[in-house]
Amino acid sequence: MYAIIATGGKQYTVQEGDIIKVEKLGVNAGESVTFDQVLFVNNGSAVVGEPTVKGATVTATVLAEGKAKKVIVYKYKRKTGYHKKNGHRQLFTQVKIDKINA
Fold first, then answer.
1. Does residue 102 register a pLDDT over 90?
2. 87, 68 in Cβ contact below 8 A?
3. Model's pTM, two decimal places?
4. How far is Cα 60 from Cα 92, in angstroms, rounded to an integer?
5. How far apart are CA 22 and CA 86, in angstroms?
6. Are 32 and 59 contacting, i.e. CB atoms less than 8 angstroms apart?
7. CB neighbourhood size of 91 (10 A)
8. Tens digits of per-residue pLDDT, 50-60?
9. Radius of gyration (Cα) for the chain, nearest Å?
């Protein structure tokens, strides 16, 4: 059984036991979180939401929060001597999928 959930403006394909990194949720480690935007569920037969599957939720446990690797943003304009170097580290929450309720 797997499902497609939406959180943080992105979509993730998840199965029970998966560990995924999503946009920062602001929940402490060890707590439970429920995703209610389930777009698709497949448990032998496919159920497609319009836009979400009614009554379907995905329960997960928060493992950790952190920052991703640094991404370098470099702006450059030729012939003018303009260049600017910046870095960005995106915040994330690591969660373990416990149960898909469909």
1. no
2. no
3. 0.85
4. 15
5. 23
6. yes
7. 12
8. 999 999 999 99
9. 18
Distance between CA atoms of 76 and 83, rounded to whole angstroms? 4
**What are the tens digits of pLDDT across the range 60-72?**
999 999 999 999 9
Cα four-point dihedral sign 61, 94, 54, 102: negative
Compute the distance between CA of residue 21 and CA of residue 8 in angstroms, rounded to an integer. 11
How many CA atoms lie within 13 Å of 88's alpha carbon, on the beta-carbon side? 6
Nearest CA among 87, 84, 85, 86 for reference residue 69:
87
At 82, list the tokens: 């303009």
pLDDT digits (tens, 9 = 90+) for 75-91: 999 999 999 999 999 99
> Which is nearest to 16 in space by CA: 81, 101, 94, 83?
101
